[in-house]
Every structure is written in structure tokens, then in C-alpha cells.
UniProtKB/TrEMBL annotation:
GO terms for cellular component: cytosol. Transmembrane segments: none annotated. This is cAMP-binding protein. One of its GO terms (molecular function) is DNA-binding transcription factor activity. Pfam families: cNMP_binding. Residues 15-118 form the Cyclic nucleotide-binding domain. InterPro entries: cNMP-bd_dom, cNMP-bd_dom_sf, Env_Response_Regulators, RmlC-like_jellyroll.
Length: 151
């Protein structure tokens, strides 16, 4: 796949949806494509996260350690999904394990590259901040909706 394909993919990632093609070019040019064979882990729960991954092709199962360490499914990620977006702005641990359900490909976006984009395009910083705030608020609403189950 070429640079223009990566720009098109990134423009469909929710975090980058309103960012112009010229700005996404910086990320696409500096990002790294990785192939992940079926059955292999992209990353493991609890590992330090220094980057995010945009799924370019294939599908990943997302699991968390459950009782007695057994993996519990929490979802899937397919083309256009951004995994570990908070790793773009802060050192965090991976909150789940991502395992390829089929031969897959991802675009690895590291933190220094993302910060460079924010420094070069300050207007993008406001957009990204608003999008992250929206994502956190949506997560809070989902947790609040579950609160009744634990009362």
C-alpha cells in the first residue's frame, strides 16, 4: 500500500476524521506499517504503550485477563480502528491484549511523531483534545450505565 492509501485510511479513523490530508500526510509518511500473522499478538495487556495502531486490514480479537488469568473477550477491532489512542499523548499500559484473527496489517503511530504533528499544526491540537474529551465522556456514560448492576 502507498502513502495515499495510508492517508485515506487515517482519514477514516475517528480521532483524525477532521484533520486535513496535508496534515495526515505527516503522520502517514512517518508511521510504520506492520504485518501481524494470524494468531500472533499485536500487544499484550499490561505492557507499556509507546504508540497507537490503526488497523489497516484484517481483524483483531481484544481480550482482558479474567478470573484465574483466563482471557475474556471484550471486543474486536477491524479496518479503521485506532488501538491505544491515549498512548499518543501519555505513557500508559495496554488495557487489553490484541491478537490477530487473520493475517492483518496495522499502521504504527509513535508518540514523538504524533507530538510533532501537534507542534507543527496547533489547530489540530484543539481538534484532538475535543475528540479525546468526547471519547472519555462516552466511556464515562457507558460506565455510569453499568453502575446499576453493581449497586
Amino acid at each position: 500500500m502507498g502513502l495515499n492509501d495510508d492517508i485515506a485510511l487515517l482519514s477514516n479513523v475517528s480521532l483524525f476524521a477532521d484533520i486535513g490530508e496535508d496534515k495526515l500526510r505527516l503522520i502517514a509518511f512517518g508511521a510504520e506499517r506492520r504485518r501481524v500473522a494470524k494468531g500472533h499478538e499485536l500487544f499484550r495487556e499490561g505492557a507499556p504503550a509507546d504508540c497507537a495502531y490503526a488497523v489497516a486490514s484484517g481483524r483483531f480479537s481484544l481480550t482482558k485477563a479474567g478470573p484465574e488469568g483466563k482471557p475474556q473477550p471484550i471486543g474486536t477491532a477491524a479496518r479503521g480502528t485506532l488501538l491505544s489512542e491515549l498512548a499518543l499523548i501519555s505513557m500508559v499500559e495496554r488495557k487489553f491484549t490484541a491478537t490477530a484473527d487473520e493475517d492483518s496489517e496495522v499502521i504504527r503511530i509513535n508518540r514523538p511523531l504524533f507530538r510533532r504533528m501537534l507542534e507543527e499544526y496547533p489547530e489540530v491540537t484543539a481538534m484532538v483534545e475535543a475528540r479525546i474529551r468526547e471519547n472519555i465522556q462516552a466511556m464515562i456514560r457507558r460506565v455510569e450505565a453499568l453502575a446499576g448492576r453493581f449497586a
